[in-house]
Design goal:
Layout lengths: L2 H19 L8 H10 L2 H19 L3 H39 L2
Length: about 100
């Protein structure tokens, strides 16, 4: 091979490596979803956990497109679980403070 052909081949290999890095596996959010299920709001966290497990299964089948979809849905449900759990907990704490103040 000529040096021009070698340099073209080297550049193609570099491009393939860079594009291969873009094919990273999506996050499963299983651990975060489990924590949100326990600490925040059970039903919404359980849905996030289910999609996290579905992401793991899709990754096991090497179905990256479905894994990405499940990962995005799991993230949305995880955010919903945390936000809703925080709102419910703040409202509950506020109610307990008001009831404590009224009992005096």
């Amino acid at each position: 091979m000529h040096s021009d052909q070698m340099s073209q081949l080297d550049s193609l290999v570099r491009v393939a490596r860079v594009s291969g890095d873009a094919e990273r596996a999506p996050r499963t959010y299983v651990a975060w979803s489990a924590a949100a299920t326990i600490l925040c709001l059970f039903p919404v966290g359980a849905v996030a956990l289910g999609y996290g497990v579905a992401t793991q299964r899709a990754l096991g089948r090497h179905d990256l497109e479905r894994a990405r979809h499940h990962s995005r849905v799991a993230r949305r449900w995880l955010i919903a679980a945390i936000a809703t759990g925080l709102i419910v907990n703040v409202m509950l704490a506020g109610t307990l403070v008001v009831l404590g103040a009224l009992s005096r």
